[in-house]
Design a protein that fits this description.
By secondary structure, this protein is mainly α. The chain has five helices and two strands. A two-stranded parallel sheet has the order 1-2. It is globular, with a radius of gyration of 14 Å.
């Protein structure tokens, strides 16, 4: 599965389908997926909101040293999971702070 522009639409649809047929958590770890470099903050926030809302989605693994986008994705996921019991507004504020950090390393993450 390929992820372009940090758009989780395909992954979310696939996660909903696999959950519906009872394969959700047991088989997701066997998915091979590739994230292409992208700096789409809106799509990243949409993906994080799905994780925060506990909707069927997928973002597990470890950050890749070869792909800055993957590192940002997993960092954002960790922040979202650590703030999942807060309101979305509070979680989004923590993610916005993370965006500032990302922007220090790559100007394309800046607003």
């Amino acid at each position: 599965m390929e992820v372009h522009d940090i758009d989780a639409t395909l992954i979310n649809a696939w996660a909903r389908h696999t959950k519906a047929i009872g394969l959700y958590f047991e088989h997701l770890s066997q998915v091979r997926w590739r994230v292409y470099d992208s700096y789409d903050w809106g799509n990243l926030m949409a993906w994080m909101k799905a994780i925060w809302a506990r909707e069927p989605t997928y973002c597990q693994g470890r950050a890749s040293v070869f792909c800055r986008t993957t590192a940002a994705l997993f960092g954002a996921t960790r922040i979202t999971e650590d703030n999942i019991d807060l309101s979305w507004k509070e979680c989004a504020e923590a993610l916005d702070d993370f965006r500032v950090v990302l922007g220090q390393f790559d100007y394309r993450w800046r607003a």
